[in-house]
């Protein structure tokens, strides 16, 4: 019995060594057909930078040309005081200043969903698509929790594209204006992002 067990554990050790050797070959050796290790500098990833942007996000729900439209509603959402289960699709303009007429920097495209039973709390899932200067075509992806009545809401930046490849960081959102008549909102976004 003891002999059988020790033979078994010996084959387990040999198997583990083989597996580690095999994985090492794939990940480190760089010779595998589907994966290899790259030199970050050759990929143009020289130095990680930390950038700050301050922009204004306009959620236009009222009027003839809304940029935020409800697309799905749970059966109870209309009766829920927190609109739990409501999903809204957005293509919101992002501008340099608080006025909608100020310079367009890009658009916030994605959706927000009422994800809290107890307070007005949104799950935000959106891409900031930049449309000016060297940032034109680059995006930052934001996904986080937005309790809209809190003074400052912090949400993670979970990635990016173009000049924001390998992005990580956070945004802080602060309501600048909320129109009680039509529901339109302007929110100041301070973006803190590490990128190359
Ligand atoms: C941004 O890029 C698009 C697509 O390449 C181009 O059509 C547009 O003119 C550019 N805008 C600016 C402001 O450079
Ligand atoms: C709020 O919305 C109403 C209705 O669209 C509009 O008449 C009013 O000017 C808006 N108020 C502000 C401060 O933008």
UniProtKB/TrEMBL annotation:
**Localization per Swiss-Prot or TrEMBL:** Secreted, Extracellular space, Apoplast
Answer yes or no on keyword Ribosomal protein: no
Entry-linked InterPro entries: Allene_oxi_cyc_Dirigent, Dirigent
Q: Which residues cross the membrane?
A: 12-28
Could you state one GO biological process linked to this protein? phenylpropanoid biosynthetic process
Q: Which domain of life is it from?
A: Eukaryota
Keyword annotations from UniProtKB, A to Z: Apoplast, Membrane, Secreted, Transmembrane, Transmembrane helix
Q: Name one GO cellular component term.
A: apoplast
> Which PANTHER family does the entry link to?
NUCLEOPORIN-RELATED
The task this protein performs is described as: Dirigent proteins impart stereoselectivity on the phenoxy radical-coupling reaction, yielding optically active lignans from two molecules of coniferyl alcohol in the biosynthesis of lignans, flavonolignans, and alkaloids and thus plays a central role in plant secondary metabolism.
Describe the subunit structure: Homodimer.
Q: Which protein family is it in?
A: Belongs to the plant dirigent protein family.
Specify the protein name.
Answer: Dirigent protein
* Species of provenance: Papaver atlanticum
């Amino acid at each position: 019995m003891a002999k059988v067990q020790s033979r078994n554990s010996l084959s387990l050790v040999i198997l583990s060594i083989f597996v580690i050797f095999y994985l090492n070959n794939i990940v480190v050796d760089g010779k595998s057909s589907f994966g290899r290790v790259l030199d970050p500098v050759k990929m143009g990833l020289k130095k990680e930078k930390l950038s700050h942007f301050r922009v204004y996000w306009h959620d236009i729900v009222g009027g003839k040309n809304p940029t935020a439209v409800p697309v799905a509603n749970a059966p109870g959402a209309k009766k829920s005081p927190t609109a739990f289960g409501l999903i809204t699709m957005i293509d919101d303009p992002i501008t340099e200043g608080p006025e909608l007429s100020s310079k367009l920097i890009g658009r916030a495209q994605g959706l927000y969903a009422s994800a809290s039973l107890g307070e007005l709390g949104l799950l935000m899932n959106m891409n900031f698509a930049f449309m000016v200067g060297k940032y034109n075509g680059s995006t930052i992806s934001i996904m986080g929790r937005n309790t809209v009545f809190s003074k400052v809401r912090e949400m993670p930046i979970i990635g990016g594209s173009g000049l924001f490849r390998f992005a990580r960081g956070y945004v802080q959102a602060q309501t600048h204006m909320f129109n009680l008549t039509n529901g339109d909102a302007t929110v100041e976004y301070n973006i803190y992002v590490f990128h190359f």
